[in-house]
Amino acid sequence: ATSADSAATAAFARSFGRLSLAIFAAALAVAIFAAIAGRGLHADGAHYLVVMLGAEGFNFPEPSRITAHFLVQAPTVLAMRLGLADLEGARLIFCLGLELAPLVPLILCHAALPANRKHFFYFPLMHYLTGTMSAGASPIVESLVAVGYFWLLFYLILFAPLRRGMLIATLLLAVPLAALHESISLLGLFLAGAAVWRSRRERGGRAAAFRLLAVLCFGAALAQMGFIVLPRSREQRDGVVEGFVYFYWIYGRTGGFNIPAILGLLALALLSVLPSRDGRADVFQNKRPLLDG
């Protein structure tokens, strides 16, 4: 990259970093408010919590989503078993878990990116604003957790420093992929491809570790393909496809606009414009800084 390219990338990173910080703060405030308001009890959320309270433990209704269920429910189960939460406390912790589970991987994703790669944070942030916010009215949807988990693992594979501890942590994160969510049937292939790409740039034991990562990610994709071909509920699978094709995620079947989804799309449009004050700092208008860092 030329010095002008590097300067553009640095300018974008500074401006985008400040904007990302503001978005984190706003997203955290919204998540806490939604949890207090009980948004997590919408749709299947209340049923999930009732089953957990009755069993005083986890509720794993979908074999293909055990990892996502665990990540969301673990704080509530821990609080119940330690006797730290009554009924109202369990409700609040459960709703907080649902709201924060997609947000925490986003924050970790930003932290995992090296300083000269921070501009890549645009993509998981784009997912949060358009995908997570689209389902803000019903946070029980497990795919929100799954895609946040994907972005974190994806960037760890591509950019993580080659320290032993970081490699072990990345391998451990890849193990539960096979039971994360059906979306891993596709996203797992991207993870496997990233691991193969990284393995070709490393040597010895480190290259072997990334090859193992590729096998784990590809195996997870195959496992989730099996859950799609042989679903527990064929009707739910068909309903998801219909909702996407007919834009029910913007305008519901029973009427009414999905305001969080629309606001997320508007925020994404603003995010693409605001960091480019002088026209040179927009690295997405110049692909060399984006790819070369």
Write the layout of secondary structure elements.
Elements: H1 3-37, H2 45-55, H3 66-81, H4 87-100, H5 103-112, H6 122-132, H7 143-159, H8 164-174, H9 184-199, H10 204-229, H11 234-245, H12 259-273, H13 287-292
Helix pairs in contact: 1-4, 3-4, 5-7, 6-7, 6-12, 7-9, 8-10, 9-10
Give the N-to-C terminal Cα separation. Answer: 8 Å
Topology as a string of helices (H) and strands (E): HHHHHHHHHHHHH
Tally of helical runs: 13
Counting helices, strands and paired strands, the structural category is mainly alpha
What fraction strand? under 5%
**Could you tell me the radius of gyration in angstroms?**
20 Å
**Low-confidence segments, ≥5 residues, pLDDT <50?**
276-293
**Percent helix:** 55-70%
How many DSSP-defined strands?
A: 0
- The geometry reads as globular
Q: Major beta sheet, specifics?
A: none
**Arithmetic mean pLDDT:** 82
